[in-house]
TrEMBL record:
Pfam families cross-referenced by the UniProt entry: DNA_ligase_A_C, DNA_ligase_A_M
PROSITE patterns listed in its UniProt record: DNA_LIGASE_A1 (PS00697), DNA_LIGASE_A3 (PS50160)
Name of the protein this chain belongs to: DNA ligase (ATP)
Reactions accelerated catalytically: ATP + (deoxyribonucleotide)n-3'-hydroxyl + 5'-phospho-(deoxyribonucleotide)m = (deoxyribonucleotide)n+m + AMP + diphosphate
Length: 314
């Protein structure tokens, strides 16, 4: 189930609030052993060995949560998680797990034993999850926060957090659907993007990537250009992007954008940027690179619109 970008609901009594963490969404299947699937249904279990001790479980259960790298003050750091997202070499994974340990923040219970829970209201699922008492060295259930919602989001801003999630107490779990019954209220504006090309750099970046050409899919299924991003990169990120984009090169434009000196690529890679605002012509103002999102499929990437809460039951 996916959240919709929105504002804090007016009716605080119908909602619970949670901290929005900045990591990798993951479904955990806890049976005789642990199996973890990313949002695009890829098995990523091997990348997170420090979570293996969640299993075995009797009865088995299925949970939803976020894999994060937590800083000393308890905030999640997507940048710290980046070196771990792309690794599949067992020795490298073990070394990174020791240096940058991940934590699985579990916020929903979807199945237990032979019973599916997705039709139950959020509050009941959450209470059942809390009864499991999932507290371990690298996993935990983050707390539910009571309203008023405006005070919760203000406090999250003062603490430097990404934002909060607002979840209707009576909402069922809707697999694969983006619903206004889960709202994400962000302190930092970000947007998933599809990389459709790159422009060569100058100066210190001469001969290398200077900026990436960004696009999103429209509701009609067409790619539309939303500008370039040329800041926020580390040298290792640029080297990794160059290696990944090299086999994706193509001679014809990926979109109908009239941009000179672009090296066009197949729209296979998804990234994430922060930005200040959308311009009137549909471009991102002051975008800054945050990292690749290998857990996302390109055709899922659309412009995020701010929506208001929907009243009434789902």
């Amino acid at each position: 189930m996916l959240a919709t970008a929105g504002i804090v609901p007016r009716d605080d009594t119908a909602w619970n609030f949670e901290v929005k963490f900045d990591g990798i969404r993951a479904i955990g299947y806890i049976t005789d052993e642990l199996r973890i699937l990313s949002r695009n249904d890829k098995n990523i279990t091997a990348a997170w060995p420090e979570l293996a001790a969640l299993a075995p479980a009797d009865p088995p259960f299925v949970v939803d949560g976020e894999i994060v790298a937590l800083t000393a003050d308890g905030r999640s750091s997507f940048e710290a998680l980046q070196p771990r997202m792309h690794q599949r070499n067992p020795a490298t994974i073990r070394a990174l797990a020791a240096a940058i340990p991940a934590t699985y923040l579990i916020f929903d219970l979807l199945h237990i034993g032979d019973r599916s829970l997705i039709e139950l209201p959020y509050l009941q699922r959450r209470e059942l999850l809390e009864q499991l008492d999932l507290r371990g060295p690298r996993w935990q259930v983050p707390p539910r926060l009571s309203g008023p919602g405006a005070a919760v989001v203000d406090q999250s801003r003062r603490l430097g957090l990404e934002g909060i999630l607002c979840k209707r107490l009576d909402s069922p779990y809707l697999p694969g659907r983006r619903s206004p019954h889960w709202l994400k209220v962000k302190n930092i504006r970000d947007q998933e993007i599809v990389i459709v090309g790159w422009k060569p750099g100058a100066g210190r970046r001469a001969g290398h990537i200077g900026s990436l050409l960004m696009a999103v899919y429209t509701d009609a299924g067409e790619l539309t250009c939303i500008g370039n991003v040329g800041t926020g990169f580390t040298q290792s990120a640029l080297d990794d992007l160059a290696a990944r984009l090299e086999p994706l090169q193509r001679k014809t434009p990926t979109t109908d954008a009239d941009v000179p000196d672009v090296r066009w690529v197949e729209p296979r890679l998804v990234g994430e940027v922060s930005f200040s605002e959308w311009t009137g012509d549909g471009r991102l103002r002051h975008p800054s690179w945050r990292g690749l999102r290998l857990d996302k499929e390109p055709r899922q990437v659309k412009r995020e619109l701010i929506r208001h809460a929907r009243s009434g039951t789902p």
